[in-house]
Amino acid sequence: MKSFIASSMIFIVSAVSQQCAHEYEFSDDPPRHSISQISPVCGRMGDTLTITGKDFSDITSKNTVFINGTKAAVLLASSTYLTAIVPARAGSGNVSVVVDKAEATGPNFTYLPTGVVTIASNDLQMDGLAADVQKNIYVVRAVLNSIYKRASSGAISFVAGGGRAGNTSGYFNGYGSFALFDYPSDVAVDSKGNVYVSDTGNNCIRMIAPDGYVSLYAGVDNFQYGHPQPGYLDGPRNQAYFDRPRGLFIDKQDNLYVCDEGNVRVRMITPDANDLVGNVTTIAGTGEHGGKDGPALQATFSFVRDLVVDDDGNIFLTEAYEPARVRKIASNTGVVSTILDEAKARYGCSGEPYVPLSIGGVALGPEGNVYCSAYVRGSGSYLTDRTKIITIASDNTISALAGGADANGPREGIGEKVHFPFTGYLIMMDGALYTGTDYQLVRVEPN
């Protein structure tokens, strides 16, 4: 029933946005009407927007309102003001009013996306996750030291790890349950169907081949200790050292990016080619803790947790805490900048401080928004702190996409009315976010 209600609301709000400005025939004559102001200047789908001006039509049907080129339903009309409903997925842009085919353009409206949350799977505790080209989702179950797969059909199956006891930690290569991991964090899938695992406790990257065999992919076996030891060294992947690797991401060229948390660096592993093993290089970080922006190899980080790479090669990464931040490494300049921290975080329309206590996963939306899972400080005691998925728009506007209700809140629904016990890593698939929360895989569709 909750899913039906949420879907119905989206339908009602979006039904009015099927016709865009370019489908209208406009007059070349200048408009007689004009827009002086709008209120509010930012908001979400379903909000009421008041447009003040002069010489609008008193007949509601003769006024057409657009927000960023998306048609909005007009509720009330007079010669000096109009009220309209903000349509779903409008995006940020100018508000305009068309009367008698003449268009008057007004101020900019900032659109804050709202997430519609549904449960995709139950009984699936998870940490990191990644999708393959068939839309199967591989998930890390860190407490079981295992990797599972949720098929596109919804069926859940075991892949590897855990030993015969089902939750044993250790280091061993082999098939299925014979393979052992030590508190793995994240996964990534390449174009050939190989699944890569950041084996955090074993300080290395493991690979699960399509036939199910688990092997050491990047790192150095140390037979004296029984598993790879922490360290820092670039070079061929079978000679490189890592220290507690966390988030993983694979780009379209099958380059594997690694958040090397213990070394406080971002690393990249190129794919094998011409019978040569891939090479590990450091692309950002000095090894020192800090928050210094600037050239990537001179910048400093703290507790790098997750990362994502866009089609232009820009890297967005999260730092979990001390302090929690989101950073960007620009591909064209190689410069690191901070796009979210305690000093810059201001919430949506109000501009009030929006302080993330910790940040986990990160994903990119097709509209250019950056999405992060975060634990956010509330307005009162720690009892008002909440787990949310937040949006960072291209203009750095921060807003809550979903989550924020207390423990009595529903697990499905719309926006901040939903309760997340916690969230972790994020992925974007088919225009929706997926994340794990308290033995559930949830789907969050931005609207």
UniProtKB/TrEMBL annotation:
Key words of the record: Repeat
Stretches assigned to the IPT/TIG domain: 34-111
Origin: domain of life: Bacteria
Gene3D superfamilies tied to this protein: Immunoglobulins, TolB, C-terminal domain
NHL repeats: 169-211
Pfam (any one): TIG
Protein name: IPT/TIG domain-containing protein
Organism: Chryseolinea soli
Top-level taxonomy: Bacteria, Pseudomonadati, Bacteroidota, Cytophagia, Cytophagales
